[in-house]
Write a structure and sequence with these properties.
By secondary structure, this protein is α+β, with helices and mostly antiparallel strands. It has a single domain, classed as Mog1/PsbP, alpha/beta/alpha sandwich (Protein Transport Mog1p, Chain A, 3-Layer(aba) Sandwich). It is 27% helix and 31% strand. It has four helices and eleven strands, in the order αββββαββαββββαβ. The strands form two sheets. Strands 1-7-8-9-10-6-5-4 form an eight-stranded mixed sheet, sandwiched between helices.
C-alpha cells in the first residue's frame, strides 16, 4: 500500500464527496404534480444491490462504484458529522468511490422525514440551500416518482463537476439522500450508469 498516495486520495475524496445537507423541520407539501418515471435500466452498468434499512429503500450503485474501506469511512463520517450535521439529523451511511473515473456516491439518511408527515418546508429550505450554494444558473431542479418513492432531484453543474443530488422519500423509513459526483470530463460516458442506478430505487417492505 502506498501511504502517500492513500493520504492524497483521502484529501481528494473528502473534497469530492463533501455534501450539502440541510437540517430543518417540515410542514405541508403537494407532490401530486410529480411525474411517475420508468428509467431505461441497463443491468450491465450496475453493481450489487445496496439496502438502507433505516430508510426502507434499496438501489444499485453504478458498476465500478465500491464501498470505501471501513477505516477510511469512519474518518470521513466523523469529519462530515462534525462539519455538516453536528446535531445528528443527517446520518452518513456509506461512501462509494469509482477510482477509474474519480467519481463518488454519498449515501445518507435524514432522520424522521418521510411522506407520512408534511414535508414542504424542509424541501423548500433544502432547495434554497442548494441554490444559494451553487447559484441558480448552475442548478436544475425537478421531481418525479420511482416505484412509489418521491424524488426531489438537483442536477448541479460547474466547470469541474456534475452532481446528481437526490432526496428520496417514501411512506416508510427515513428519507434517503443520494449524491452522485462525477468529473465533468467523464460525465457523458457516465450519465447512462447514473440514470440506471437511479432507476433501481425501490422500497424495502417489512419481511421483504
Amino acid at each position: 500500500m502506498n501511504v502517500q498516495r492513500d493520504n492524497l486520495g483521502l484529501k481528494a475524496l473528502l473534497l469530492l464527496l463533501l455534501p450539502l445537507v440541510v437540517g430543518c423541520h417540515s410542514s405541508g407539501n403537494d407532490l401530486s404534480s410529480a411525474q411517475r418515471l420508468s428509467f431505461d435500466v441497463v443491468d450491465s452498468l450496475l453493481g450489487p444491490v445496496y439496502e438502507v434499512a433505516t430508510a426502507r429503500k434499496s438501489f444499485h450503485p453504478p458498476v465500478g462504484f465500491v464501498p470505501i474501506p471501513d477505516s477510511l469511512f469512519e474518518i470521513l463520517r466523523t469529519r462530515f458529522t462534525q462539519e455538516v450535521s453536528p446535531e445528528g439529523m443527517i446520518e452518513f451511511i456509506r461512501f462509494f468511490f469509482d477510482e477509474q473515473h474519480s467519481s463518488g456516491l454519498i449515501v445518507s439518511t435524514v432522520g424522521g422525514l418521510n411522506l407520512t408527515a408534511d414535508t414542504s418546508t424542509f424541501i423548500d429550505r433544502y432547495r434554497q440551500a442548494v441554490l444559494a450554494e451553487y447559484g441558480n444558473d448552475n442548478v436544475k431542479v425537478g421531481d418525479y416518482w420511482v416505484d412509489g418513492i418521491y424524488v426531489k432531484n438537483f442536477v448541479i453543474t460547474d466547470s469541474m463537476q456534475v452532481r446528481f443530488q437526490l432526496l428520496c422519500l417514501s411512506s416508510e423509513g427515513d428519507a434517503l439522500e443520494l449524491q452522485y459526483v462525477v468529473p465533468r470530463a467523464v460525465y457523458a460516458t457516465m450519465v447512462k450508469s447514473l440514470e440506471s442506478s437511479i432507476g433501481t430505487l425501490k422500497p424495502l417492505y417489512q419481511g421483504g
